Amino acid sequence: MSLSAPAIAALVFRDHLAQFPLAADACRENAATGVALHCVPEAFIEALCAGLVTAVQQVRVRGVLTGIAIPPATASPVPYTLTTVPAAASQFLAAQGWTGSGAAGAVATFITSVLTHLVATSWLQLAPSKVAGTGTALVSLASNPTLQAELETLLQGTLPAAFTAAGVFGEGDVPGAPVNATLAAQLPNYAAAYSMAFAGIVASVPYVGGTGTSVLVTEPVSGSIL
Fold first, then answer.
1. Residues 191, 135: Cα–Cα separation, whole Å
2. Which of 55, 61, 117, 171 could pair covalently with 11 via S-S, beta carbons 3.0-4.6 A apart?
3. 189 Cβ neighbours under 8 A, 6+ residues apart
4. Percentage of residues in the chain with pLDDT exceeding 90?
5. Cβ contacts of residue 51 below 8 Å, gap of 6+?
């Protein structure tokens, strides 16, 4: 597995079609302004995933390693969990103010499905330790107090950039123009939800290195999502 926005988007769009089968027919073009024929929900999901992946690849995830005092040690990539996805989805729904019959399905796609597939197709890689040997690093909300703010700030830039790059969401329906005002007003809600979900990241990361009888030491470690 590796972090791939197109791969995630394909899985999310599949989930979206399960919720909204007619979405496959929601296609449009605008020859007058140069907007090519596209499936609107598919292009929307592709832009969401592109913006999220770009931001996630830039953040540092932190943990606390406890190991014996015989360095060095290294960690292999491991799976991780986002424990606050349901809360993030609820926050997003409230922020959007959606109350229609399709609201729950839309949130299930744009928030829950996006995050679920991102987690399932990526890994957490923590950096080697020069202080501790064999041990375990714990990644939690407590070890990442600034992660939510850091990711939200990144998303406030990467999401609009991804939608602009898509060429089908521009103001005045002009490819390459800034994102239209309606969508631009909503993108901060996506940034807030995704960053809230990531703030709840947890993982237990084995480190393998020096062995023997020794006192235990602790060390802050950090890494990234691959």
1. 35
2. 117
3. 92, 95, 96
4. 97
5. 155, 158, 159, 160, 161, 162, 163
Asked if residues 133 and 206 have their Cβ atoms less than 8 Å apart, the reply is no
Check: CB of residue 118 under 8 Å from CB of residue 3. yes
Whole domain around residue 94: which residue ranges? Answer: 5-225
Q: What is the mean pLDDT of residues 107-114?
A: 98
Q: What is the count of structural domains for the chain?
A: 1
Whether the full predicted model's pTM is greater than 0.90, yes or no, is: yes
For 94, residues 6+ apart whose C-beta sits below 8 A from its C-beta are: none
pLDDT at 210: 85
170 within 8 A of 164, measured Cβ to Cβ: yes
Q: pLDDT digit string (tens) for 26-43?
A: 999 999 999 999 999 999
As a whole number, the mean pLDDT across the chain is: 97
- Residue 10 neighbours by CB distance under 10 Å: 15
pLDDT of residue 132: 95
- Sign of the CA dihedral 2, 52, 158, 76? negative
Instruction: Mark 126-157 as b/e (b = at least 16 C-beta within 10 Å).
Output: beebeebbbbebebeeebbeebbebbbebbbe
Tell me, what amino acid is at 207?
A: Y
